[in-house]
């Protein structure tokens, strides 16, 4: 049976949501984060050479990386509407958002987390200098690019119910996690009403609620 190695408060919540949407059976193995840096435990890191979540086991196969796992699972469900077929109206948007999420949005959110931790966990004596340098980097590079990306997403969602059209796809399962994280790490204010509508809609899906219940909940790491 397929096993999802679920690290708490991690990207592996996406895989649980996908499996619940597909209605597939799976075994859930949970792992708690450890230490002041809330890292994966050693037994999780031993699962795969990169030691990152998500990771799945399926017979003799062991696979990591969100998009690789999503494609692997959808290859086994070729008729699923969660991956639009070539030539369908939503195919181009699906491909774009499926990959732009991990390639463009996720790195910005990770940088946000790293910068916050560098300030809060730097030695007190040099913390003011570290904060000054990091705040300049955030203002000059990170925040403009993150705002641009979130604005792009919000504008897209102003024209459709889901990110690739009016039907849920695996691109939503990938980007939904990032938007949950973004809402914690970024002050949305009134700038992204369509993202907020989208998140409320996503959280109402029974499959997403089942994934949260089985995993023990999801609280994105703020800093």
TrEMBL record:
<dbReference type="InterPro" id="IPR004045">
    <property type="entry name" value="Glutathione_S-Trfase_N"/>
</dbReference>
<dbReference type="Pfam" id="PF00043">
    <property type="entry name" value="GST_C"/>
</dbReference>
<feature type="domain" description="GST C-terminal">
    <location>
        <begin position="108"/>
        <end position="221"/>
    </location>
</feature>
<dbReference type="InterPro" id="IPR004046">
    <property type="entry name" value="GST_C"/>
</dbReference>
<protein>
    <submittedName>
        <fullName>Glutathione S-transferase</fullName>
    </submittedName>
</protein>
<dbReference type="GO" id="GO:0016740">
    <property type="term" value="F:transferase activity"/>
</dbReference>
<feature type="domain" description="GST N-terminal">
    <location>
        <begin position="1"/>
        <end position="81"/>
    </location>
</feature>
<keyword id="KW-0808">Transferase</keyword>
<dbReference type="Pfam" id="PF02798">
    <property type="entry name" value="GST_N"/>
</dbReference>
<dbReference type="InterPro" id="IPR010987">
    <property type="entry name" value="Glutathione-S-Trfase_C-like"/>
</dbReference>
<dbReference type="InterPro" id="IPR040079">
    <property type="entry name" value="Glutathione_S-Trfase"/>
</dbReference>
<dbReference type="InterPro" id="IPR036282">
    <property type="entry name" value="Glutathione-S-Trfase_C_sf"/>
</dbReference>
<comment type="similarity">
    <text>Belongs to the GST superfamily.</text>
</comment>
<dbReference type="InterPro" id="IPR036249">
    <property type="entry name" value="Thioredoxin-like_sf"/>
</dbReference>
């Amino acid at each position: 049976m397929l096993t999802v190695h679920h690290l708490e408060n991690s990207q592996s919540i996406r895989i649980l949501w996908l499996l619940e949407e597909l209605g597939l059976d799976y075994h859930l193995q949970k792992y708690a984060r450890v230490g002041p840096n809330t890292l994966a435990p050693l037994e999780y890191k031993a699962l795969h050479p990169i030691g990152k979540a998500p990771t799945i086991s399926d017979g003799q196969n062991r696979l990591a990386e969100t998009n690789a796992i999503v494609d692997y699972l959808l290859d086994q469900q070729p008729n699923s509407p969660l991956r639009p077929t070539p030539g369908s109206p939503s195919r181009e948007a699906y491909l774009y958002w499926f990959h732009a999420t991990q390639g463009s949005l996720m790195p910005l959110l990770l940088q946000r987390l790293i910068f916050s931790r560098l300030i809060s966990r730097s030695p007190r004596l040099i913390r003011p200098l570290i904060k000054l340098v990091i705040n300049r980097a955030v203002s000059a590079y990170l925040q403009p690019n993150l705002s641009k990306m979130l604005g792009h997403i919000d504008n897209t969602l102003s024209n459709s119910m889901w990110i690739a059209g009016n039907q849920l796809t695996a691109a939503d399962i990938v980007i939904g996690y990032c938007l949950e994280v973004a809402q914690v790490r970024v002050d949305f204010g009134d700038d992204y009403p369509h993202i907020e509508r989208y998140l409320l809609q996503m959280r109402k899906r029974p499959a997403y609620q089942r994934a949260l219940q089985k995993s023990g909940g999801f609280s994105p790491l703020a800093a």
